[in-house]
Amino acid sequence: MENxxxxxxxxxxxxxxxxxxxxxxxxxLGLLVGVLPGLGAPNGVSLLLPLTFSMDxxxxxxxxxxMYWGALFGGSTTSILFNIPGEPSSVATTFDGHPMARKGxxxxxxxxxxxxxxxGALIGVVLITFLSxxxxxxxxxxxxxxxxxxxxxxxxxxxxxxxxxxxxxIVSMMLxxxxxxxxxxxxxxxxxxxxxxxxxxxxxxxxxxxxxxxGIGELLVTMEEGLAFNSVATRVSPREVGRTILEWPRxxxxxxxxxxxxxxxxxxxxxPTAASFMSYGLAQRWSRRPEEFGEGxxxxxxxxxxxxxxxxxxxxLPMLALGVPSSATAAVMMGGLMIWGLNPGPMLFTExxxxxxxxxxxxxxxxxxxxxxVLMTVPLFAAILRIPxxxxxxxxxxxxxxxxxxxxxxxxxxxxxxVFGVVGYLFKKLDxxxxxxxxxxxxxxxxxDAFRQAMIMSQGDLTVFWSNPLAATIMTAGLLLLxxxxxxxxxxxxxxxxxxx
Amino acid sequence: xxxxxxxxxxxxxxxxxxxxxxxxDWKPExxxxxxxxxxxxxxxxxxxxxxxxxxxxxKLMDQSIAVLNKGGGSGAEAFIxxxxxxxxxxxxxxxxxxxxxxxxxxxxxxxxxDLTPVAAMxxxxxxxWVNAKSDYKDAKSFIDAAKANPGKIKVAGxxxxxxxxxxVSLIQQVTGAKFTYVPFNGGGAVNVQLVGGxxxxxxxxxxxxxxxxxxxxxxxxxxxxxxxxxxxxxxxDGKGWSDxxxxxxxxxxxxxxxxxRTIWLPAGxxxxxxxxxxxxxxxxxxxxxxxxxxxxxxxxxxxxxxxxFDDFRKTDEAxxxxxxxxxxxxxx
Lengths: 501, 332
Hints:
The structure holds two protein chains of two kinds. By secondary structure, chain A is mainly α. Chain A has helices spanning 2-14, 17-35, 40-48, 57-82, 91-102, 106-140, 144-158, 166-181, 206-224, 238-247, 252-267, 271-285, 299-314, 316-322, 328-339, 348-351, 353-384, 389-408, 412-429, 435-458, 469-500; strands at residues 183-184, 191-192.
């Protein structure tokens, strides 16, 4: 109840016309950087940071946080329309979002994505409001074995499904691990797989790979198939938006499950990207028609979007309460806090009471503003698909390359995008799944670090992963998820045999 | 209006630099890039952005500034970037002592000769921190425990073979204790590990741990500085920075261990550019924004350029290299 009073106080601070204007500006800017693949929320926020130096900290964080929400929304737009994830965390949205757009359901997919994203964010803020101190204490219980458990769980949730042959999945995943290992190894400080190229020293940027694999790869396929988006008669009417909003509550199971996954991954610094993959995997596993995933199932859009935003929102909590950012954007904002003269950490909530609660209140308002704004843009975005490919195709290529460059301002990344574009094309032609590669690239490196840290801490004793109830629970859940398909396959086999005999 | 005021600033700068004619010869003609050798939000990032803020607030430079984070490979990405931009006086590189220490432990595509030293603006301190719930009340009991249980005491640090691990190795060398060093990514994660009780100690900088100390979760044992730190406000339980004993007085024979916040230019830039930036950063070091940053992060605000910076660097490099050789990290 005390939190509730604080929240009301926060609303009284955040609900000024100046702050609402900042939210609108922030969301708009965020949408813009989110739509441009590669630019993304972390880069956008760090570009905007110098402008906030002269602002009051509460106004500054409201502007930056609104930009973050806007970017999260914008990232889904290009995923659905062009199969180009604007943000790493919207990769999973492409799996079903883009097929929906190709079937002529772009408006429906966008509306579902935005509504679900708004819902996920809302659940995240509610959690921050009422459970902040509990969640912060919970996050403290995580060390290397628990981190490894979380990554393992995300892997296990996503693996063992999909229509591709298991061997192709393994090849794709191993390639992802290898790509994730490029660069400096943080545990030993030595270089791996750089082959003497200085440009590979920072590693291969996940975003650059994704822009190539998905964006350029998709374009190559489209060109081969006759230079047209197969977007037969995309319905572009505000009425379609309204209809979809009415249809949306039907996915309440996916919404609740994905919010839980998102909040969990946001607090235990697994991050929004891992959350969206895990949530997609679980949605498919528990679906009655798993084989339809990847062909344009609405749940395949609802689940990753909800989890992505719930995690993105919850990621603010460890940053504020512990000074540990669990997403790249949160890291930039934390830098901002320090420059404004605030120290994120356990004392922030008591010492900067007004600031914290104004921020939390602005999360509610900012997300409402964002959902309203993006829903208004849906018909506009969906109409883009009606532009002839001869015009939009070259624009997409340009956007892809600009996006790839803006990730690290490194001209070498142009070549990487081209190489990954060809890889993406070949993968599609040979029917290799891309998702395992992407997942391995995002999580492989982190999981490896966590595993080796755990091994150093336990001096090589593998039982460390079962040394306390928390780690043991996560690891056991992961193992169960991993072997569930095998077990159910075995059970079916045994049953069939017993029926026959 | 804007142009007039910037003209005034330029004139004022010229008058101030009247004696040193060289400095007034060169001025940036294009926007200047601050290349940060860490990710956004890291210590080096805050350093560079504070300088940017001070320059903007006092209009110390006519050209605008863009901050670019190149933190890959423990910061080596930024230094290689300097090499590829040799002779370009519009790129400033912000780092620590990693500029000249990294090439000793990892084979990289640059050497220190690819950069021109401009200035060191502050020295960041190191302390031994333990969890407030632990039994270690002073440095001696902590070291004794490590001697009694070799390898059982876990110390977390930011990276592998970085300033943290070098310091831990140094402590091992001078005391004969044996720790297990666990590299986590960045000071924030290192902190959570200690507060959560997963490791026994860390050697974080003051600014990385002050909030946890204030909250009563961590306890500082000693500081690796020649003398105790400046007082400042009381932080926890009636104690402030000046109440922490030096590690030397606590029986760990390390005189001082400090990390400089440094600024560099690529090699082959005009002499006048180096002089211009030295003058600029000297002015930055006198602004209230900078003083506030130094005080808030409990660093020592020492402005070093020219021979003084060179001397500091040589000593620092020689000391670190000894540890690298002893630990077998040094590359041939």
